[in-house]
Amino acid sequence: MQETEICGKLVPFAQKKAYVIENPQFSDFIKNKLQSYNISLDKSNKYYTFIKDADFDILKKYEYMACFNLNQRAVYMILTTYQGNKYCIYVNQRTGEMHSVKHRFADSLYDKDTIIEGELLKLNNQSWIYLIYDLVVFEGRYNTDNLHIKLEKLNTIITKQYTRDIGLDPLQIMIKDYVSYQYLESFVNDYLFTVPYQSYIGGLIFRPVASHKTNKHFLLVLNKPKFHDFVIKETIQSKFNNKLQNNKQINNKQINNDKQINTDKQINTDKQINNNNTINNDNMVNNNDDNQPDLVTNSYNNPSKVYNIDDSGLTNQLQIDEQNTLSNNKKRKIDHKKHSIVTFELRQTNKPDIYDLWLSDMEMSYGICAVPNIKSSEDIKSLFMNIKDKVYVDCKYIKNFNKWQVIHQSDKKCADKLANLM
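The chain above was modelled as a monomer; its predicted structure follows.
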């Protein structure tokens, strides 16, 4: 039987074409499949609510993670078999439209139903992304795993059970980024400007890690489009620092590594934070747990460490590090008009798509590099996959970002010296 007989006519879908499912038998098969897993297309977001003062008690009590809110209705990707054939079906929750699309997923994902939930996004350059945020059905069963495990499984699917085929895929598949409280400020101040879908972002969603404990999702609105320090201070710092405030502090050993809080040194750390004048009040504190699974970011990102939420609140030590770096470098800047290309050592961080740039005569990072698009992100990640030693890159200055962007791997075996670039 021809594809048009089973599905329907060929129509534009994302960057290519797909078969719209008009066959009533096939359409009913998909609807029944969703209903068998208790998935309803007319389901409202009853678990989502705008955050209120009383909700901070819940955020303190349970472990939550944050992601960007794009204000899009869900689109389900269903991998299943019908009449002996394997199908990848995109189902729009809002319109109910179904499209049969070709992707190169492993056969096992079709043989045992797999249902993924995400958002379909059209970018300014006319390309499309399917941004995944949940694994609803896995191996033919409704998935009740916690968020950490779901993200690990999604990462395995995208990196090991899916082959990207530019000639076949009508869009790019990515996994949505989730971060723990301690990365909130950097997530919005830095990472937001690197994602290709930033124009969709209207705020943050706080999602519980273990849905069996609480299934409430909280929305925090950012004053779009003013994503700058003022907004972050007013929305994240003031709300979270005040509402989740407690007397605990993090110690110095948490800077630049993932070590346990040393309560014996909290007083000294408190003095250091006040003296550095980087964060007012007690910001974001968390208990580091080396046994926690890694945070899975987008489908090409290396995992980043995930942390539990401490009842006492949160202190964003990464922001302290960044402020210290900026303060120390303030009077020592590269003259980018004289030096258009500079060689840096590139180092990974625990933050998604955030990379430190180092010069050979500095004892701290010069700053973070610009990652303005998907290609740039993928190119950088390939460097760390292919190079085991230190990574040296040639960079150009990007005025709009006030940052340096990686051009390519450098032929040099050492980073430039700041003293020669001023």
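Residues 3-43+71-175 form a domain with the D-amino Acid Aminotransferase; Chain A, domain 1 fold (CATH 3.30.470.30).
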